[in-house]
From TrEMBL:
It comes from Filimonas zeae. Keywords: DNA-binding, Transcription, Transcription regulation. InterPro entries: AraC-bd, Homeodomain-like_sf, HTH_AraC, HTH_AraC-typ_CS, RmlC-like_jellyroll, RmlC_Cupin_sf. SMART domains: HTH_ARAC. This is AraC family transcriptional regulator. Gene3D superfamilies: Homeodomain-like (1.10.10.60), Jelly Rolls (2.60.120.10). The lineage of its organism: Bacteria, Pseudomonadati, Bacteroidota, Chitinophagia, Chitinophagales.
Length: 293
């Protein structure tokens, strides 16, 4: 996995880029670009990494990602098996608020939208109650000719600007910017964790993978993610556990725990509550998930 400064292909006569994807899986590298991104996941599931935060994503969800915000829609492992017939479908709108659209957003009439763009540089997930309305507007943008497309684009921003209960993708302060070299290195570490979270990852193993001593790795990881390695690994594991609990295909909570890298159900329960604020059983009850033994 790499953190890449990604260049969105833009025609000279376009300021709003609409991209429809039907692929075996989402783009598999951590990346960033100067455009703001609004993605409607029409089909697919996995984990969204936004900076050092993780969120499960699934069908019919919409996410806003800020300009130059490192991110990755990481599909579940089942998408990468040799015989997988799974596909993802998405509709994405890209725009650069500081490019050709800059003078437009500086108009006094759009000051509320300008404030909205500034407020949500960390990105957000759209509440379920707004998905149908915003998705319909995104379709109108996709299907319209240039002038009407621009009008619908402003209407879309007006809808979003008036929204409430937007779920931030990043908690706390935003990470400081990193060089492309450091981004590549961090992405390499993220990928190793995402691929091996269900095994007994030792600090020595991940440090060796990053070509560092354990002490140097701990300092490096904390500096660039503001999390300890153990805290980040636990968040990955609990995020995966939540998806498995919701899926309902496992026969017990302890089975889910062991499939997510925990060797002790007691430790799993403790970490689950630390990360989510509730016990696994409370999580199951709250979301009306299938019963577990």
């Amino acid at each position: 996995m790499k953190v890449l400064q990604f260049t969105i292909p833009v025609a000279h006569d376009k300021t709003i880029i609409v991209q429809k994807d039907i692929l075996p899986h989402f783009y598999p590298h951590l990346h960033r670009h100067e455009e703001i991104q609004l993605t409607w996941v029409q089909k697919g599931e996995g984990t969204l990494i936004a900076e050092n935060n993780m969120h499960a994503f699934g069908h019919n969800e919409i996410f806003w990602l800020g300009a130059n915000q490192p991110h990755l829609f990481k599909n579940d492992p089942s998408y990468f098996t040799g015989r997988s017939k799974k596909t993802i479908q998405s509709l994405t709108i890209f725009f650069n608020p500081d490019g050709k659209l800059g003078p437009v957003f500086n108009l006094e009439e759009l000051k509320n939208i300008r404030s909205f763009l500034s407020k949500y540089q960390h990105g957000f997930k759209l509440p379920e109650t707004m998905v149908a309305e915003v998705a319909a507007c995104m379709l109108r943008i996709q299907q319209s000719k240039p002038v009407d497309q621009f009008i619908h684009f402003i209407e879309l921003l007006k809808q979003l600007q008036g929204a409430t209960q937007l779920e931030p993708l990043v908690s706390g302060s935003r990470l400081s910017s990193v060089s492309d070299h450091e981004g590549l290195r961090i992405g390499h570490i993220y990928n190793y964790i995402m691929q091996h979270y269900d095994t007994d990852i030792m600090l020595e193993d991940i440090a060796k993978h990053a070509h560092m001593t354990p002490q140097a790795f701990c300092r490096y990881f904390k500096k660039h993610t503001r999390l300890t390695f153990v805290a980040f690994l636990n968040e990955v594991r609990i995020n995966e556990a939540c998806k498995k609990l919701a899926d309902g295909t496992y026969d017990s909570i302890s089975t889910v725990a062991y499939h997510c890298g925990f060797n002790s159900i007691t430790n799993f329960n403790r970490v689950f509550k630390t990360v989510t604020g509730k016990s696994p059983r409370d999580y199951i009850r709250e979301y009306s998930l299938p019963g577990y033994d």
